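Exercise 7. Predict the joint structure of the components listed below.
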Amino acid sequence: DGGITQSPKYLFRKEGQNVTLSCEQNLNHDAMYWYRQDPGQGLRLIYYSQIVNDFQKGDIAEGYSVSREKKESFPLTVTSAQKNPTAFYLCASSIPGRAVNADTQYFGPGTRLTVL
Amino acid sequence: GIQVEQSPPDLILQEGANSTLRCNFSDSVNNLQWFHQNPWGQLINLFYIPSGTKQNGRLSATTVATERYSLLYISSSQTTDSGVYFCAADNAGNMLTFGGGTRLMVKP
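Solution:
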């Protein structure tokens, strides 16, 4: 089945450690996104990528890093520089441009990160 | 950047009731989407609707771009409609800004 997968579902880390969250899609979408959601809040954009080997900062990129070496993969690293990393992280993908359903974003199931 | 506000923040309905959720945005948009987030956190895209009206079963949405608002209608609500409804808008290309959400609880 086509879709977006994120792993792991739950992640616990000690303060000061870097951690990488996985996001994979087999929808053949060009664009991929990472969002952060805090309890009771909406989503905020961390990074996005519209094409392989290119990515742009979103509204809250500080303390995070990404790579886009393959079309289907867009991993997010939460570094020790991120002051409040405990949150729910959501990955999404879309087809940018003029195609049918272009720009409609489809989301993965999310990863809940808790830093102890 | 664009500002997105949703109302009401919380809504409790009896099963079978109808409801209207509102989304106001501060600037013209080229992308507006409605999402439903279930209690497990999964977001499902309901509508891509930068303008006009769309319907999908018991749900419909209308965006009046000139007046900078969008409405989501839920008819004959069911307990499975519970969750958080988000509106998200973009006017600069591929950077959706989300509203704070409307938390809906449908009671049996």
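Discussion. Chain A has a mean pLDDT of 91.
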